[in-house]
């Protein structure tokens, strides 16, 4: 691995402050992959935003991309803050982190609506099936019938956030496991290039409150039961902006699907056991449905579609970020005011 | 005509010109809005100072609604507590409407409900044969219900001397220049006009006459004014969730945002997003403000309450953004279409912990426009949310105003550092921290995302933080930050915000303090009190925190009446907090009945103490 990227920066330059999460927390592994992704692709940090809600997961933006502006918003309300920021400056890219409590409970409404509006950013859910920061209550993604020492048995069905994302109209929906560094990395690389919203639901075990082998959100369960739908590789064409060319590693020819990304990148999927085509919405829903019933833990790019227009496009906004407009553009002329006034006579 | 037997026919000398008020009682959704707008617009075009106030119910169709029109040759534009003339077109309220008329008043009533009206021989009654007129009118039956209110326009025009050609001009304007609907409506007006001319003898003393009291003025709602203010103030991101009475403010922004389109491509430079709720609306404008855009939302009490957590975050993370609260009667949904000034306390302290906000209080369309653009300058200069406290009366009613003055100052972006300036700052101060107070005014220098400098980034958060925006739970760091925020609020903000308007003369010992839309009623009340020998000084508060001059004003008087349109005297409560024991000579006069304030109540209340 080269110690400097195309911008002449080291991996260290992409780090943030020291994590204060419990040692071994899955969230830290994901932060590491965000750092690697940005370093490998040679992303310019000043054009990146890191956003989050509230929760252990949502604290993590402080621990990566130290040279990017960040906003730790409110519990469940990160999507609206991202929406405002990206409408103000559509030239920015954003990586946002949320928890399963943050997204699946208090933030469910904003989650659905930010997808519906197609705000182009990477929406990562660090899903551990519990509330970490408030000390271990069940979240809406906790397995039905799961037991926790203090809170007893969860009798409610789990919400599948990948399913919810597809239903809401997301054009990039993936699921992964924080212990699967390689897959998380590839998905992040593909997601940051997606022109629409990219939702990645990453099972990220809470080693303090939810690490029983019986939980599908625990580390041992994830390690044992992960069924990747395919191996993923992001193939960038030469011309993409300041980022390193990614060479195609060795892979078995034959069972391969290439998914075209809008920017000319390919996501190359090497099928494993299942015959899953992520371009088929109905199949994506079915696969998730079945997996839920059979308690299978499927990972990979579950659904992909050519993105719909973003909200900024739908609103026919000027192509440059609004914040870059000069002061003159902020005020119509005195003559225009006079004309308007005349219409009120 | 049905002249009451003992009603004295007026001699020409008794004629009352351009100084009376109407109340038009109809059913909501019956199309009376157009009729009323046309009347108000025409009187305005005749040069008669006029106001129109819509007292409407929270429903779409059927419930009673009243529209009051006041003409005042002396230029008073407050609502009048009593009206001399009633247009009784609603069977549901006809008893009350006719009962409330003062002796000598005039009732214009449709014939099909006349028998329900109380018999009074001290008023004049004119009957409109509505069915006959509509039968004669050549109106397709689908439209007939919608235009039958035009019959009272014709009656009023004939009875009170409004020229028909001027009515037509207003109609045309109301239909955006479309001749077809204008003509259809006008035909009905003409029929009623002719009927009254031929068959009815006028016996009341009221007349309109052209005068020169509105030359150069405009007729506009406060929400339209606020919307224009936002457009001329450079708003870039608007997010809102529909709620009466703020909706028309955002509608106004949508109407005028084309003024800011890119000249070459026609593409938009103002994003307007209808959010899924007020929480999201607040989040979006905060995100946009953080990213460096001028952002705003508009709502009323129920929405403001949902925005509370975000408002506290914006205050503490020091994010510029603008919230309009077009106040209506609370609590909860209260009386959703009635006016009030009841959100001051809640909004001023919005957010938890020791938060407090900056508030602007416009009292006229001119100020709604001015505060509309100035709010963005203030938000960026103070790096804080700015709340504009307007109300339904200003927002949704037609007001006479001077044409708006073009902003006389360049757009002020406050302390934003670009990459070069950041480099310079670091050179001068050794380092840069988002919340470092190097100027002593409590306001740090900010950078916006996208600034190409390795040191530009910071992490905005609602949690405790030090001067470098780094997480901290240290008590001393917290206290230092709070002291800076309070300094910004009570020192910097207090001086920067719009100062009170003061009319002061040393010889007078009684003062009146108010804010917002009570202005016209107070102007009138002061004149009438003066006529009774009670001279008053006057101060109108235009922002919170309260300016120091408010305390000086209080101290300079024996007695000061603090007049508000809410039940609890909320501004007075803030005075008690901010000026502690120094205001024993103040007396809170607070009403809060859902109606725009009228001079009568103010005069009576003050006379109770001074009389
Ligand atoms: C409005 C509001 N309600 C409740 C809380 C308390 N709270 C803080 S974090 C949290 C849950 C976090 O759980 P999750 O999003 O799953 O993240 P994790 O900590 O597990 O990573 C809650 C309920 C809050 N901060 N704000
Ligand atoms: S409590 Fe759980 S989620 Fe929170 S930091 Fe610890 S391990 Fe991670």
Automatic annotation (TrEMBL), chain A:
Superkingdom of source? Bacteria
Q: Does the keyword Phosphoprotein apply?
A: no
**Coiled-coil regions listed:** none
Give the matching SUPFAM superfamilies: Thiamin diphosphate-binding fold (THDP-binding)
Q: Which Pfam families match?
A: TPP_enzyme_C
- Entry annotated with the keyword Acetylation: no
Q: Which GO terms describe its molecular function?
A: oxidoreductase activity, acting on the aldehyde or oxo group of donors, iron-sulfur protein as acceptor; thiamine pyrophosphate binding
Q: Report the record's Gene Ontology biological process terms.
A: cellular respiration
Q: Which residues form the Thiamine pyrophosphate enzyme TPP-binding domain?
A: 54-202
- Report what the protein is called: 2-oxoacid:ferredoxin oxidoreductase subunit beta
Taxonomy of origin reads:
Bacteria, Bacillati, Chloroflexota, Candidatus Thermofontia, Phototrophicales
